[in-house]
Amino acid sequence: MITIGQMEVVAAKPEQNMNTAIEIINKAKNNWSDMIVLPEQVLWYMIWDTWERDWYIKECIDMNQDIIESTKWWITAIWWNVSTDFNKRWYDWRVRKYNSAFIARDGKLLSNWVNDWIIHKALMPDYRYFDDSRHFMSLIDFAKENNKEISDYYTPYEVIIDWVKKSVSIMICEDIWNYKWDYIIDPVKEAMKHKPDIITVPSSSPMGINKDIMRKKILTKQSINNTLIYVNPVWIQNNWKNVFIFDWWSSIYKDWNEIENVVDFNENSNQIIPPAFQASPFNKGGQIEINNSEKILKALIYGTKNFMKQIWQKKVVIGLSWWLDSAVVTAICTIALWKENVTTINMPSKYNSDTTKNLAKQTAVNLWVIYKKISIEESIKITHKQFKDAMWEKPTWLVAENIQARDRWARILAGIAGMENAVFTNNWNKTEIAMWYATLYGDTNWVISIIGDLYKSQVFELAREINREYGEIIPEQMINMQPSAELSNEQNVDEGLWDPFNYEYLDKLLYQFVELRKMPEDILEYHINNELEEKLWIDKNILEYFDNIDEFINDMEKVFRTVEISVFKRIQMPPTISISKRAFWYDLRESQGIIDFNTRRYKRMKERIK
Length: 610
Prior knowledge:
alpha/beta, 6-stranded mixed sheet, 37% helix, globular
């Protein structure tokens, strides 16, 4: 029998992770399992330049012996750890390190005619949030240095499973992702030269919207003529600005078919050590399908709960307005942290209607969370007077709006959070982040942005999903109402004075600019080729959103310019739970000052249309 050893991998907690791994190995032994496969980087993961601290590395390597000892009494274990060659140096004289897998049985490391117990990762991902080659030497360079063929290092190890000898090759995470020949070698093809019975893949692959579809497609293809065991961890990791969620979904594939899997986020009651999953790779298992909104909700609840654990905090303070974003964040925090740990503050001014104040209060009542109302009207009047006395003139309309935002978030929420020994959350969504529809040093503050990687239209879908899962805790009127900032007389929901955006269209355009890294040239080319609506996934003709082509082009350029010009503001934002194809911050590395650039070809296309 084979055990999929899914487990939580907590950054910079190698001893805790080692104990978790050993406990899971012992559970597998108690269930008479012959072999257990654990995830990639089972002791540490996203610790970035902490990899340059040699004593951390030595501590990790020392823990290998504890894991080896745990395999006594006849079980084979495959796990990840860092390995080093302290006699050799990296290009900049750092100690040379490898991203490696180990295999042991009965208290001893295994070896074959090429490898003494160690397998290095071949493919070094350096895209998006990955930066492997910054820290690790690849198997490709290692083999070249030692004058060996890559395939030699995939020579199988001999193990016993169900009293039958099986040959097992090992590769690590990215090594199976070369399904379109994006790299110069295909490790799976190299391994299959030895015709192994089983290929094991310790992996650490963060969750992403629709990523399961791509991952399944790759694993299915790579399992032809073999059994492929893919093991992913759980928990959250971060790279300073992006908080990534690891959702498991470990699987076993055989000859193009998924024959067993483990449900994502499936942890046990103590939320520390998930049960090891027992499965025979030759028994049919069920496939579980879930929609995107359901998975997003589960991911954000899981990410919020564990981020708070990671920063040693239990309580949150939330600015609860009638805005749907704040209601969704309140619901997620309440589900993740329990109602007694959530305090909501409504902070109206004279511009807030009774309609919206009542909706905010109703949301808090539905969730059974603490609700307080603190008016900002008096403090705003005092600030205006002080500004006029000092500057001899009243604040402009924009400054006046921003004063309200800063008073709410920087003064009231920060102060209440301090009194409650709590932190306060950010309610910003990705559309607002891209369009800079928020106030610097005001509602851009806070400890974590929970929905900052969801466009506004996704927030609406998430609100509906919350109500489907938990009953109508977010008032239906709030979901159906057009959003308005309510910062002046020109913004009033009762009078139909709403935000200046058509989110149905804007979100699709922003997806092209942010996730797909397209430019106005691409969008204009779509239009010229009569494929704009198809590319943007919109059901209407573009002229149903705009009066004429000039208006469409001017709006597109304004959106693109706004996204580019606001980089200097985005870099000051709090960390964000990241689940999309491309999240702001470290996943999307932007430079300041690249503003309003368009190609000469675009300018010619634009003139031709006009």
